[in-house]
Amino acid sequence: MTQDDAFDDTAFDKALSAALKEEMPVETPPLARAVLTRLAEEEAHPQRAEPLAEVLSHPGPVAAGYGLLLLGAVALGYAALPLLGGEEMVFASALAELLGFAGGL
Amino acid sequence: MAAMAQGDRRALGRLVALYGPGLTRYAAQMLDAPSEAEDVVQEVFLKAWRNAGRYDPGKAAVSTWLYRIAVNHCIDRSRRTRFRRFIGLEATDEMSDDGPGAAAIHESRDRLARTRDAIAELPDRQRRAILLRAAGDLSTAEIASAMGVSAGAVEQLLVRARATLRRQLDPDDMEERRP
Q: What is the residue range of B75's domain?
């Protein structure tokens, strides 16, 4: 890289920086007030629950909970098999329901 | 930072005054939803406040430390935005905020929009590097530290980013802003 190139790059970066400043003038007092307000809110309510959108955008824990519920349902169904008339009965019932849903026999 | 670690909120205010504008511009260009820039910057300062006691001046300058937090927050926020859009919780396009005097500043706006679009089309790492330089005014070493890559890699990213921007932007637009 020559000295001219280096100067060109510096000038280019400065021009880009000026373009960004022109596009987005930022006033610092409102920003500082917003930060301090949020800090005060956080200190007043340290255990604030996340909004629904945040929960949905962090699906890991929710998905894990849902998976546990499904496992629980499977275990409950397996334990209740004898009460429902045995495995064959449940299978026949599930098959009939499936065929019925698809158009019936 | 030492004053912040002691709980001095005026120190936090000074930090916002010093680095707030650059961080906001960086976030606005990096995020998929630029309207979230101010929110992200607030989170950066809150994180800096909470971790002020752990800041080590021997490892990085304050600016580098703040921009490193901002880089990670922007990546995280963009992922969330994409996920929200994927599940339909958020609209894809942001509404433009044309005001009553919009027609008078259209030409200037078009020029700025071209700059913005050109930056937005850069690959993520190139965009990050050139914005840390232009919005954050960081040196190559500081950008390397903020991005967690080598100085050589940053130079490469900057060279490629500048070359692409030079090809896409009207030279007169950039010439007008030359110092």
A: 1-93
